[in-house]
Amino acid sequence: MSELAFQILLTFDATLRLATPLIFCALAGLFSERSGIIDISLEGKLLGSAFAAGAIAAVTGSVYLGLLAGVGVSVVMSLVHGFACITHRGNQIISGLAVNILASGLTVTLGIAFFRRGGQTPTLGADERFQPIALPFTEILEHVPLLGVVYHELVSGHKLLVYVALVAVPLAALALAKTRFGLRVRAVGESPEAVDSAGVSVTWLRYRAIIVAGILCGLAGAYLSTAHGAGFIREMSAGKGYIALAAMIFGKWRPWAALFACLLFGFLEAASSRLIGIEFPIIGEAPTDLMLILPYIMTVVLLAGFFGRAEAPSALGTPYVKEH
Amino acid sequence: MSAAPPLPRWADIGLLPVINLAIALVVSGLVVLAVGEDPFRAIDVMIQGAFFYEGSFGYTLYYTTNFIFTGLAVSVAFHALLFNIGGEGQAYIGGLGAGLACLALDAVLPGLVLIPIAIVAAAAFGAGWALVPAWLQAYRGSHVVITTIMFNFIAAGVMVSLLAGPLIKRGQSSPTSRGFEESAHLPDMQEFLGFFGIEVARSPLNLSFLLAIAACVFVWLLIWRTRFGYAVRTLGHSPRAAAYAGIRIPRTIIVAMAISGGLAGLMAVNEVLGVQHRLLLNFTAGYGFTGIAVSLMGRNHPIGIVLASLLFGVLYQGGSELDLEFQTITRDMLLVIQGLIILFSGALAYMLNPALARLIATVVAHRESREAPA
User: Fold this and answer.
1) Residue B30 CB neighbours (<10 A)
2) Which tens digit of pLDDT belongs to each residue from B85-113?
């Protein structure tokens, strides 16, 4: 295998690792928005759960307790968002923004108070983090040309949550397409009146959808601080929640298309970090800064309807007022 | 549960916002308590730091200036029912406009000519950055919230690549431009008032504060005293009514967003022309987002926005004192307070509305029944 091909393979490998939090968050946004609740608080939930997971894993030494804490905190943040915009019919964007800003402030404030490390949590040891999983057959396939390397470098050796994210996509697609809950979530995002008149509670349904979103964001946050990284650092979500939001929109509120968008955006990030300082013929130094904003530009172009139309759920953003 | 009586106007404008703010501050106090510090001492430190130390009030007003611009920006769009979350990016690109004007012309033009050009450039670049989301909203129906969020990130990327590339000061590695010539410095308040024989302590407060006050008057006139403002408010109340009234909706959206972006861009006048005197990364420091909180608290009215900006000015200046006085509370506490204010004064603004309305109705009824027999 040539050096270039191997580098490309490693870039794909990094793509998968960088896309994982995006996949979780995009699916989270998908459940929330398909039920009619705009969720710009993905970013805040990601940050909050990363902090909780990092902190609890450091204190207890258990990565799974950390995971549980991350998911718990993220669900609570979802419920705050829900309390404001489902129960009190507040503006969903304002509420999401409040959650994001609160997460930025609280993670650092509490981090300093608990650990006194300038907002970081203690660095996690190997047994306090998720470890790479070697899939079976790696050794058998090792001597098969091409396939062996691809299997060893790309498919095998990721952390548990990477595989969970990849499994979550078909599950989410299935849930939305086939289960009673998923169909109702889609219905309540399109026409809450119809769901209400069928005797199903719009409020409870939307709460369940955002709880699912909270769980998914929690997994993403735990991945950031206890799998991808070794502890929480301030602002470690670094806009990933917004990129996931863009990916979800880019995927037209559909799980498989969102997965594709997450992989594409992950690839841009993976490639740009490998291309820093590399000179190309004609274009000169790789425009890595611009590569990183490409996801946002592509999303805007898509939203403009220049290639295909991205149709949001029709009741998105509108609080439901039950008629008496 | 019976429907609550309507809340009297004085309570809606005066009482409810104060109660919501009080809840946000009380919860902030609980957070301070939770991290093991005394909230009352924190308040004392902040008030000392915002008003009483030498030059501190100038600092407070310097922050206030930023918030007036970004708050006004959000409010103008909001009157047309447009949620401009892009103030941060518009201010950033506004700074690019002002900076480019200064870098290009500061060697040849005197300040009296250059500074107005730079101010216009800041507004024009900010407006231009809002124009694409505005156009997409007006003609393609793309949600302005999402596009302005995306444009914030695009602005950040553009600024990084410009400041690390073509605009970087030669022979240094940190991504900032060269400093502007003296002629491009906006006079600070100490200098300006000194000219009239008034002495004030040194602070970053500069003439852009007066520009901010002028912008308030401009917005008030624009929204409540012009035909365009009438169109904006009609659109904000009912897009359908606006359409029937013959208001050109796409044009109104685009102009409202451009003015909004222009106001956000003017924030850079304070930071770039008034204080930093060069272009650098992240000089917007979240002020664009704080503008949303300011506009919400100020109920989208210039007077309310000035008051809310002053409050946030006190919080920011007082908050920087927290860093010095406390081990465990830092400036990040400001974000907590800000988040709670947005939550309680914005998202949950009407949580207490029914309860308060009932309470007021009961009190009024009680008083009337006591007065009646006499």
Assistant:
1) 11
2) 999 999 999 999 999 999 999 999 998 99
User: What is the C-alpha to C-alpha distance for residues A279 and A270, in angstroms, rounded to an integer?
Assistant: 17
Yes or no, beta carbons of A93 and B83 under 8 Å apart: yes
Q: Confirm if B100 and B178 have CB atoms less than 8 A apart.
A: no
Give the integer Cα–Cα distance in Å for B46 and B28: 13
Q: Which residues in A lie closer than 8 A to residue B350 (C-beta atoms)?
A: 88-90
Are the C-beta atoms of B77 and B232 separated by less than 8 Å? no
Strands, E assignment, chain A: 132-133, 158-159, 279-280, 284-285
CB atoms within 10 A of CB A194: 12
A113–B328 CB contact, under 8 Å:
yes
* ipTM for the assembly: 0.91
Residue-wise pLDDT for B283-320, tens only, equals 998 999 999 989 988 989 999 999 999 999 999 999 88
How many CB pairs (< 8 A) connect A and B? 148
Tokens 């201010």 -> residue: B91
Q: Are the CB atoms for B352 and B4 separated by under 8 Å? A: no
Residue B169 burial (CB count, 10 A): 15
Q: Which residues lie below 8 Å from residue A195, measured CB to CB, with a gap of 6+?
A: A184, A187, A188, A202, A205
Identity of residue A56: I
> Cβ B343–A287 below 8 Å, yes or no?
no
pTM here?
A: 0.92
The continuous run of DSSP H or E covering A187 comes out as helix A180-190
